[in-house]
Design a protein that fits this description.
57% of the residues are buried. The chain is globular. The protein has helices spanning 3-24, 30-35, 42-54, 57-69, 74-101, 107-114, 121-153, 157-205, 212-219, 233-244, 254-262, 266-298, 305-309, 316-324, 327-365, 375-399, 405-429, 435-454, 463-469, 472-489. The protein is mostly helical.
Length: 496
């Protein structure tokens, strides 16, 4: 790594550590460690929710997908903007009101209180599913970290993954949720300006005599088809829906909705929704545009784009920054990519820690232990789960060298979303939803994700269509239907 990149990385890490240090001064209880004492402002929460929801796939995966799939990738932007808008406009206030009423600081807290559950089944199930998919998701982010260091900083993949792991673990270990949110605000700003400015710089550096659509048509006419690049219309429909369904994950995923628990009040939600929408629209559109411009600039008709732009186009951002930006700014973009990754890892580790420490250890086995005594245990659990995720990431790297960032990250995202989003939606909008329905929804969502990924996608005939459709949409729908069926079969008992 050259000196400028080393300096940029060093400054970035220093800022994160300072954030962790100052955040630690506010951590005096479990509520502080997990939801910032429910006193966070709208700027921090909005940027944190968006930075957490995007992750490394935005800069490495989505830019690459834009290069490979062309204009149809903008369906990801549509799906995410719609998902974020519904979440902030129609769900956030309801969820904030209920979670405050229940005095909940975790999603299992919220669910158990909502259904007035006397058994621990729902809490155990929610905590188990959360822990499993969060570890998978964190491992995918560590994997992205290694790839980012390798493509943008010239550091060995394994060394980069371990460096990134220790950076994020250190400031989370110190400052908990407050450190996660404050660092997400800082990292979200880096992501926003880094993504939005790059395509503008590149566009004005290009020869303006040939338009974008015309250039894409010369390379491959399929790249300009908004419905997909395939000659099979049903394959294109599946691709379009697969891209758009990514936005379903914003309708109740714990790592996003714990931010609504942490915000000061509903007035702050009204302010934050505009920040979240604008952030999503501009950063997602910019990421796809970066990929589209890279396809025009660096490939020609008949060439294999992956041979030039990397597996699934994952080297797009590195190639674009090195060719169009001054050397010092290239170094800053290393920090921008790490920001996208770290902002997700920190939030997920806090969520996973809360599932084990509070929802298992305290609420199920040791209810007499006060919150204050669990702060140290929370940090130890965070460390253990982070190490487990690191081990999985390195194992995946060795066993599947042809994996792609985009779909690996989406698998972890989908697992969490399919298990929890239908449940959160139904608790907010349907009074007839029962605990039995919630348990059925969670189990169904949890099992459908690997079923569609590893079984249905490999079936002859329908498999390729479901591979493009991906797992979240079908799993989400089936979980919703199952929740409705079981709520009807096992309705709430009426008090005499």
């Amino acid at each position: 790594m050259d000196i400028s990149k080393l300096i940029a990385l060093g400054l970035y890490v220093l800022i994160l550590f300072l954030i962790g240090y100052f955040a630690s001064k506010r951590v005096k209880s479990m509520s502080d460690f997990y939801v910032g004492g429910k006193n966070m402002g709208f700027w921090a929460v909005a940027f944190s929710a968006r930075a957490t929801g995007e992750s490394g796939w935005l800069l490495i995966g989505l830019t690459g997908m834009g290069a490979i799939s062309g204009l149809s990738t903008y369906w990801v932007v549509v799906g995410e903007v719609v998902g974020v808008a519904i979440s902030w406009w129609y769900m956030a206030k309801r969820f904030k009101r209920k979670s405050d009423e229940y005095n909940a600081i975790t999603i299992p807290d919220y669910l158990e209180s909502h259904f007035k559950s006397k058994k621990k089944t729902l809490r155990i199930l929610a905590s188990t599913i959360l822990s499993v998919f969060v570890i998978i998701y964190v491992s995918s982010q560590i994997d992205v970290t290694g790839k980012a260091f390798e493509s943008m900083a010239g550091i060995n993949y394994y060394t980069g993954a371990i460096i990134g792991f220790f950076i994020v673990l250190t400031y989370i270990f110190i400052g908990g949720f407050v450190a996660a949110v404050w660092s997400d605000l800082f990292q979200g700003l880096l992501m926003f300006f880094g993504l939005v400015l790059l395509p503008i710089v590149v566009f004005f550096s290009m020869d303006g005599s040939i338009g974008i659509v015309e250039s894409l048509n010369q390379i491959d006419p399929g790249l300009t088809n908004l419905w997909g690049t395939s000659s099979d219309p049903w394959m294109n429909v599946a691709t379009m829906l697969g891209f758009a369904f990514i936005g379903l994950g914003f309708l109740g995923s714990p790592q996003v909705y714990v931010r609504f628990m942490s915000i000061k009040n509903e007035v702050e939600i009204d302010k934050g929704k505009w920040v979240a929408i604008i952030f999503t629209l501009l950063t997602d559109a910019a990421a796809v545009t970066i990929g589209v411009l890279a396809r025009i600039l660096f490939t020609e008709n008949g060439q294999d784009p992956e041979a030039i732009l990397g597996n699934a186009g994952e080297n797009v951002l590195s190639i674009m920054t090195e060719n169009f930006l001054p050397y010092l700014l290239v170094a800053i973009y290393v920090a921008v990519v790490l920001s996208a990754i770290m902002s997700t890892i920190d939030s997920l580790l806090v969520i996973a820690s809360s599932a084990i420490t509070r929802d298992f250890y305290q609420k199920i086995f040791n209810p007499q232990i006060p919150d204050e005594q669990l702060a140290r245990m929370s940090r130890v659990v965070t460390l253990i789960m982070a190490i487990l995720a690191l081990a999985i990431a390195l194992l995946i790297a060795v066993s599947t060298p042809d994996r792609t960032v985009f779909w690996m990250v989406i698998f972890g995202w989908s697992g969490i979303a399919a298990s929890f989003c239908p449940v959160i939606i139904l608790t907010l909008f349907w009074k007839g939803y029962t605990e039995a329905g919630a348990i059925a929804s969670m189990i169904t969502g949890f099992l459908c994700v690997p079923f569609f990924k590893f079984v249905v996608a490999n079936m002859e005939g329908i498999g390729p269509y479901f591979e493009k459709l991906d797992v979240l949409g079908p799993s989400f729908l089936i979980a919703m239907i199952t929740g409705w069926i079981f709520s009807k079969l096992y309705p709430k008992k009426q008090l005499a």
